[in-house]
Design a protein that fits this description.
heterodimer, A: Four Helix Bundle (Hemerythrin (Met), subunit A), 3 domains, five-stranded mixed β-sheet, two-stranded antiparallel sheet, 7 strands, rod-shaped, disordered N terminus, B: alpha/beta, Rossmann fold, six-stranded mixed β-sheet
């Protein structure tokens, strides 16, 4: 990825124009090459007979000079003199284009000779004209004869050169024609190669652009159908398509993650809600049972308070204490809203309860309390310990006639707070323990005495488990019949006490 | 698969294609530029000077050999030597060619001259225009030519004369079947009737001189000049045939140039008269050498033509550089007969083609 980023990004526009430009350049190069070739050929074709044309022109100009000179010598008119000078200048211009250097080429040498003879010829014709103007008949006829002789030499030279050149050029021309045929074939081949080459090139280059688009389209279609489990697309180009592909990959991964998160959140919320509902239901159940049992706790509580006042006034201290404890016990139950209390509250409630029972059963129940840790910062559900103690008394020690004993032990272990309620009563079989712990005890199996109205063990177990969110938060130990029972509750400490 | 279409690979493909096209273009342009050069292969050379050579017998082996010597020596010295009139559609006489040469303003003229007035005047005109003239083989002694390159005609004549005396002494001068007493020997010297060249007269004098001084025999030698009508190339053959067919054929025929030698030799073979007369030739062309090998030509003399051509160029060069040169440059003359012909052929590199 880092590597990809470090590469320079080439915009798609540049790429596409690059394809066009490069293909065009290729075709352009080929065309230029072929055009140059054709041009070269045509220049050569042109040159083939250019020499002959030039020589013919030269020959014509020479005739003009000769004729004009002759005419002037005959007529001596101003017109013919003018014509002579014109034609002489024209001839001069023409022969000066001829080769004047000494080369190894015989045709060049012929040109050189024509040039030199022409120079001499014009001198002679000028002399003849001059002599005519001076009316020197003898001189101008002599100069005329000399000039004519040279003119004939020049004429022969021009004709010979023309002839030789023509012969030579004809050979050259046929060679050129043959070359031209070859050139045609070669041009075709080169054009074909260029065509195939640019086709390959364009296909290759456009593939590099369209392939990622295709991949993206296929992948997008998959996603649109709802399949997020697609492979990440490879980023093969460093252009906008690469960027889009990368973004698409990220998007798919992100969507997948969000879906996962939402699923988890929903699951959590559902579980939380379920817990809350269960708690509420259990509490309601407990409260309902209490309300059924204690028809009007407020009335009872107020009545008991009045009784306590009365006992105070009569100096009946024991009665006062009894009524006070009873009132405190009921107050705890009448309290509203708080389903979560501290361990301390629960232990106090047990104190009241044991006191009340001992008054009722005239001190038959021995109660030992062994608190080794702070109890104010341990949260727990309300109405948990009292039903357990009640259960111990009802099923354990009620029949033991003063030998019954209940030991409450609170201690810390592995940062957890353990609450142990132990009795020396009738005990339980393991089968029974398992049934109770698995909350499968059937109604008829509950060994509740007739008229029992307390909160059932199953309700307590359920609530403690819901509260701590762990199965092993409550345990029952018994070594068998008449060997007593111990109920251990495992609670978590809280940093802050929110009760 | 994904990698195949990366930008790098595309550029690689493009480069390969471009390279291909460029290579083909280069090959094509190379091929066609070669074709252009075919048209002007010799035009690239450059020469400092331009000499012309003028002869009315430019097609003969003798003159071609002289021209070859001049051309090659010239080339080595940066001089282009042209055999004037070679490319022209019209056949010009040597005086006309001289005229052309003078008006063409070359740096030097090599001419097969003669002693005629026209030639003298033309050579003088050329010299007055600053064009040095060297005469070759034929001289124009009274003109202002700067040098003459040729053979010593008198010396040549003396050699012919000596050979005549020799064949009298060894008896091979007459037909072996002719058992008559021989008190005289007829010698015919063939000379061109139309010639202002006094070279053949020098040879004639040489022969006469040699016979007078060397003939110590009883045999009387009758020297006779026979004129060959050389007014046109076709008349030579007719003249020679007339002479050979004549019943009064000389015992010895002396030819003073290669053309005449050839015609005499060919005519004698054609008329089945080989051996009837002893033929002295001149020049060393293939046909003449073959005649010697077959004993139809007694002997021939040959100047070193290649060196003559070369000497002409060197004389002109020397003259234009320093203002003077030797008045006469005489070429070596080799005598070729049956005793040394094989050696001569192998040394000169001549190849005789079977007829």
């Amino acid at each position: 990825m880092k590597n990809k980023l470090s590469q320079k990004m080439i915009p798609l526009r540049l790429k596409l124009s690059g394809i066009f430009i490069m293909a065009s350049i290729l075709i352009f190069v080929v065309n230029v090459m072929l055009m140059l070739g054709i041009n070269n050929m045509s220049v050569k074709m042109d040159r083939v007979y250019r020499d002959n044309l030039a020589l013919n022109e030269l020959s014509g100009a020479l005739d003009d000079v000769q004729n004009n000179m002759t005419e002037y010598l005959f007529t001596k008119t101003t017109d013919s003199l003018e014509d002579y000078y014109k034609s002489a200048q024209n001839y001069k211009d023409l022969y000066q284009t001829l080769n004047g250097k000494v080369t190894g080429d015989k045709y060049d040498m012929m040109e050189r000779n024509i040039r030199n003879m022409s120079e001499q010829y014009l001198i002679l014709t000028d002399n003849a004209i001059e002599a005519k103007r001076k009316r020197n008949v003898e001189e101008y006829s002599m100069e005329y004869d000399k000039a004519t002789e040279i003119r004939n030499f020049i004429d022969t030279y021009i004709n010979s050169l023309n002839n030789e050149r023509f012969k030579n050029n004809s050979i050259f021309f046929s060679m050129l024609i043959a070359d031209f045929r070859v050139f045609e074939i070669v041009s075709m081949i080169v054009m074909f190669i260029a065509l195939v080459g640019s086709a390959i090139f364009v296909i290759a280059f456009t593939s590099s652009v369209t392939k990622p688009v295709n991949n993206l389209a296929v992948a997008a279609d998959e996603v649109a159908k709802g399949n997020f489990e697609i492979e990440t697309l490879p980023i093969s180009s460093n252009d906008e398509l690469g960027v889009v592909t990368g973004a698409f990959n990220k998007m798919v991964v992100s969507i997948r993650q969000y879906i996962e998160q939402i699923k988890n959140n929903m699951e959590n919320e559902r579980r939380l809600k379920e817990n809350e509902l269960k708690m509420e239901t259990s509490l309601k159940d407990a409260q309902l049972k209490y309300l059924q049992a204690q028809i009007n706790p407020h009335f009872l509580f107020n009545t008991l308070n009045a009784g306590a006042q009365l006992a105070m006034m009569e100096d009946a201290e024991k009665t006062y204490n009894y009524i006070q404890n009873t009132a405190a016990f009921f107050r705890y139950n009448v309290r509203e809203g708080n389903t979560t209390v501290t361990l301390d509250d629960e232990i106090n409630l047990i104190d009241h309860y044991i006191y009340i029972l001992n008054v009722r059963f005239s001190g038959d129940i021995k109660y030992e309390k062994n608190i080794e840790t702070k109890t104010k910062n341990v949260p727990m559900p309300s109405m948990v310990l009292q039903p357990i103690v009640e259960n111990s008394i009802n099923h354990g020690i009620k029949e033991m006639e003063g030998k019954g004993k209940i030991i409450l032990h609170v201690y810390e272990k592995d940062d957890d707070v353990y609450v142990s309620i132990k009795d020396n009563g009738s005990g339980m079989t393991q089968e029974m323990i398992d049934k109770v712990l698995s909350e499968k005890l059937k109604e008829e199996e509950k060994p509740a005495p007739a008229g029992a109205h307390g909160i059932g063990m199953d309700n307590v177990i359920k609530r403690i488990r819901l509260f701590t969110e762990r199965e092993d938060s409550i345990n029952i130990l018994s070594e068998g019949e008449d060997m007593g029972t111990e109920v251990i509750i495992r609670l978590k400490k809280s940093e802050t006490v929110n009760v | 698969m994904k990698k195949r279409f990366s930008v790098k690979n595309v550029i690689l493909v493009y480069s390969i294609i471009t390279f291909f096209v460029a290579a083909i273009s280069f090959a094509v342009s190379f091929y066609f530029s070669r074709a252009v050069n075919l048209g002007s292969e010799e035009g690239d050379e450059h020469y400092d000077k331009y000499y012309v050579m003028i002869t009315s017998e430019k097609d003969s082996d003798f003159w071609q050999s002289i021209y070859k010597g001049a051309y090659e020596t010239g080339k080595e010295n940066g001089i282009y030597v042209e055999l004037l009139g070679d490319n022209l559609t019209k056949i010009y006489s040597d005086t006309e060619l001289m005229n052309i040469a003078i008006n063409s303003k070359p740096d030097g003229i090599i001419v097969y001259a003669n002693e005629s007035k026209d030639m003298t005047s033309l050579i003088n005109t050329a010299a007055s225009k600053g064009i040095p003239v060297v005469t070759v083989y034929g001289d124009c002694a009274n003109s202002s030519r700067c040098s003459f390159v040729g053979v010593d005609g008198f010396k040549l004549g003396k050699e012919y004369g000596k050979r005549i005396v020799n064949i009298i002494n060894d008896g091979s001068a007459w037909d072996p079947e002719d058992k008559d007493a021989h008190d005289h020997l007829d010698v015919a010297v063939l000379v061109d009737s139309f010639s202002d060249n006094n070279n053949q007269m020098l040879v004639w004098s040489g022969i006469q001189n040699a016979i007078e001084t060397d003939n110590n025999t009883e045999v009387k030698i009758n020297l006779e000049l026979k004129y060959i009508n050389n007014s046109s190339p076709f008349t030579i053959e007719e003249s020679v045939r007339d002479i050979v067919k004549n019943s009064d054929l000389a015992d010895v025929i002396i030819c003073l140039n290669g053309t005449n030698t050839n015609y005499v030799y060919q005519t004698m073979i054609d008329l089945n008269m080989a051996g009837r007369s002893v033929v002295f030739g001149y020049d060393d062309n293939e046909s003449i050498l073959r005649g010697i090998l077959r004993n139809n030509i007694h002997f021939t003399m040959s100047a070193d033509t290649y060196k003559m051509g070369s000497d002409c160029v060197m004389a002109l060069k020397e003259y234009s550089e320093s203002g003077y040169t030797s008045q006469f440059v005489l070429a070596d003359v080799t005598t070729i007969d049956s005793s040394n012909i094989l050696k001569y052929i192998s040394e000169s590199g001549e190849v005789l083609h079977e007829e």
